[in-house]
Design brief:
With 105 residues, the chain is mostly beta strands. 0% of the residues lie in helices and 42% in strands.
Amino acid sequence: MNWLDICDLEEINVLGSRIVSGPKGDIALFRTSADEVFALDDRCPHKGGPLSQGIIYGKRVACPLHNWQIELESGKAVAPDQGCAHRHPTKVENGRVLLALAPHN
């Protein structure tokens, strides 16, 4: 996997997000209260709302447009809603956030 060095972990607020540009549009990096980092395309599967502007709680983000709940680990909408935001692999090494661009199906 080709890992891209994005930023220092401290550059993403706890329970916050950061946007990076990807080849298919913006990617939102989310940081949980446990310092886990997840990356999803910055588009809700419902109406394309900016997930990066949503509220993060646990391992979910709530879309700011219609409050759809999206699982950060998988990108899947929480039932009864259906759909999936494209997920990209991330890891944190030596305090740095690394991102791998996963191909879109």
